[in-house]
Amino acid sequence: MSTSGQRTHVPASPSWRARRLDPDRSLGLRLTLAATAVFLVLVPFALLALLVLGSWPPLHRLDVSVAHHLHGYAVGHPGWVWFMTVWTNVFGPGPLRVAVLAVVVWLFARRAPRLAWWAVTTMAVGGLLGALLKLLVGRDRPELLDPVARAAGYSFPSGHALNAALAAGVLLLVFLPYARRPARRWALWSAAVVVTVLTGVSRLALGVHYTSDVVAGWLLGVATVAATTAAFRTWRTRTGPPS
User: Fold this and answer.
1) Which residues form a coiled coil (predicted)?
2) For residue 174, which of 135, 239, 232, 87 has the smallest C-alpha distance?
3) Do residues 51 and 59 make contact, with C-beta atoms less than 8 angstroms apart?
């Protein structure tokens, strides 16, 4: 009670939802948006994985139909097979990891150790998740007469599509701050999208993956980059700028 006999008004504390969406609370807002993005990507990935595990007939028919149509085209177009083979080798998991490793060394040289460790963590986590899911799902690769290419191991998710999404995301986020001109930013975005998409398409064109394998690899890669980026930003905000 105040001296005038009137109650002192105590402003109500904002709700959890209001705090998370408040632009003035930048960390909470960024984490909320990042968590939402990860959730929105993981939901279709989880649904796709369940449909593959359950051998859902419509998805199975779609996968088989696309695989056979693309195989028929590849058999009659050796030049297309050559181009897809070169592309899938140049932008395979091994070369992309080497490219990211070179960027990591560059980041350490520029005294950006946290960003370097984020890049390493993103590639490692995504790669381990992909390998684990291949074993858990245990899906065989397409069986085609007169195949134009062969690949070992299980099929779901596509390791090439996954690592392309991981590497493209890492390199994009590392170099975007250096691209101050809009044209350069568009070039970086375009390169990231082309590498990611065409690498996945190359696996379909060569008949070593189903469509759902490639889409799952893309989704898992995007989700991993979003999750590690959110964790990195939280760490950076709480511990201060890198030394």
Assistant:
1) none
2) 232
3) yes
Hey, is 148 helix, strand or coil? coil
- Nearest alpha carbon to residue 129 among 22, 8, 68, 217: 217
First to last CA, the chain: 51
Query: Tell me: the pLDDT tens digits for 173-182?
Result: 999 988 888 8
Statement: residue 29 has pLDDT above 80: no
- What residue type is assigned to position 140 of the chain? D
Q: Which residue is it, tokens 């960003």?
A: 115
Amino acid identity for residue 76 in this structure: G
Distance CA 65, CA 26 (A): 47
Q: What are phi and psi of 141, to 5 degrees?
A: -75, 165
Give how far Cα 104 sits from Cα of 76, 107, 130, Å. Answer: 42, 5, 22
- pLDDT, average across residues 10-20: 46
**For the chain, domain boundaries:** 29-139+147-238
Copy the structure tokens of residue 73: 């085209």
Kindly state the average pLDDT of the residues 126-138.
Answer: 94
Cα torsion angle, 207, 212, 217, 221, sign:
positive
Q: Give pTM, 2 decimals.
A: 0.82
